[in-house]
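Re: the 156-residue chain
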Amino acid sequence: MNNAPTNTLGFLLHDASRLLRRRFELRGAQYGLSAAQWRLMVHVVRHEGISQARLAELLEIEPISVSRLVDRMEQGGWVRRCPDPQDRRVRLIHPTDRAMEAFTMVKALAGEVYEEALAGMSPERREALMDGLTQVVANLNELEASTACGSAAKEG
């Protein structure tokens, strides 16, 4: 039997993310969108006119999976594809009015879920948590960028 602690940074971040996602999915089920569809819609609203290739990068999934997601969301009236005026091979994804309305509601719903998650924490502890997580993300992004630059230099 493995007695490794589960209160390490990795386990806590993973569990918090999983539980937030589950709570959000439960509360957002009324819209009939999967978690993957919600994530896609958020990126489409925030980056209107985004390409499917860029969506795949942001969602960290294969382009064919993004294409299928966009197909389903287009059929449901959530997004529309438009040709890119600079490159006829590229299709740009735009949110529909339906998506924009849902996004507004979802922002409010997300705020409620975050309040549930942070219940019992003082404003100072909330700020410290956000500061700490921001620093973790910045550190890891910096390491990833320097690793990518090192790999590119070796290949070149």
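The chain has two domains: 15-119, 122-156.
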